[in-house]
Amino acid sequence: MSHHHDHTTGNIKTAFFLNLIFTLIEIVGGILTNSMAIISDALHDLGDSLSLGLSWFLQKYSKKGHNNAFTFGYKRFSLLAALINSVVLIVGSIFIFTEAIPRLFNPVSPNAGGMIMLAILGVLVNGAAVFKLRGGESMNAKVMTWHLLEDVLGWVAVLIVSIILLFKEIPILDPLLSIGITLYILYNVVINFKKTMSLFLEAVPEGIDFASLKKKIEQIQLVHSIHHTHLWSLDGEHHAFSTHVVVPKNTTRDEVCTIKEQIKGILGDIHLDHVTIEVEYEDEECSVLELTHH
Ligand SMILES: [Zn+2]
Ligand SMILES: [Zn+2]
Ligand SMILES: [Zn+2]
Ligand SMILES: [Zn+2]
Q1: Distance from the alpha carbon of residue 216 to the mean position of ligand 4, in angstroms
Q2: Domain ranges of the chain
């Protein structure tokens, strides 16, 4: 998932290759054991590998900073990565449904012994990753640890089912678990997709009360009104703000500077990379006309 990115390229590179190798083992193992549950977990890990690979690739890009073609730099490229990831997971999920649903009516017995070995490997690999990351303080590390913990639980579920299958002939358990895991993958895709879409559509970043922000700016002394007020996010972490402020025609240079400082003070809590404040005098016409008044 997109939250797998870390700030050290070396870690990402290692995590990417480990994940990719493990994903390939799972795909081959899933085919050999004829288990849809294993294939579903493989799809999940393919999604993880993809987002790790893309963030590894994009980290090199984002370091390039801005240039004459991309004046905001390459931060928004991570949105593209998240979108590609969602599409891959949706296509993969559809494939799994077309394979697993018919098996509900026509159960095929998977190789339980092989499944147990793959599940133990899955618990060990993901468990080791949780162990390595535990105690991380950053939000990112916490989200990542939680995600890996879910991965471990997914493999524990496969382990339990394969142990049952070893002793009891209930082959329907495999497609049932497969569908469960895939629904869980899709649930996460929807959550990530929503976030990505609101970033693409330049929504106000989560947790910011835009109305009260505007109100506070309008209450600053000498501020007549504001318009063209925009707050958006580049990638969910780096935000940008711009506004036009109308002041009395005799406002002095010092007063304008104070107004700007006060606005920046109001914006203080928000992680802003770009702030643009245009000052307009009452008798001055706004240079940028917009169809909608705001
Ligand atoms: Zn995962
Ligand atoms: Zn505007
Ligand atoms: Zn800027
Ligand atoms: Zn204006």
Answers
A1: 18
A2: 2-200, 210-281
* Ligand 3 centroid to residue 73 C-alpha, Å: 10
From the CA of 68, how far away is ligand 4's center (Å)?
26
Domain 210-281: which CATH number of 2.60.40.790, 3.30.70.1350, 3.30.420.40, 1.10.8.60: 3.30.70.1350
| Side-chain half-sphere CA neighbours of 128 within 13 A | 8
Give the span between the Cα atoms of 43 and 89, in whole angstroms: 7
Which ligand sits nearest to residue 66's alpha carbon?
A: 3
Give me ligand 1 centre to Cα 149, in Å: 8
- Compute, in angstroms, the gap from residue 84 CA to the centroid of ligand 1: 16
- The interface pTM score, or ipTM, of the predicted complex is 0.78
CATH class for the domain made up of 2-200: mainly alpha
| pLDDT of the chain, 294 residues: tens digit per residue | 344 444 455 677 787 888 899 999 999 999 999 999 999 999 988 988 888 888 778 767 766 778 888 888 887 877 888 888 888 889 989 999 999 999 999 988 899 999 999 999 999 988 887 777 666 666 566 677 777 888 888 999 999 999 999 999 899 999 999 999 999 989 988 988 898 899 999 999 988 999 999 999 999 999 999 999 999 998 888 899 999 999 999 999 999 999 999 999 999 888 898 999 999 999 988 877 766 655
Count other Cβ atoms within 10 Å, centred on residue 266.
17
How far apart are the C-alpha atoms of 88 and 81, rounded to whole Å?
Answer: 11
Q: Which ligand has its closest atom nearest to the C-alpha of 231?
A: 2
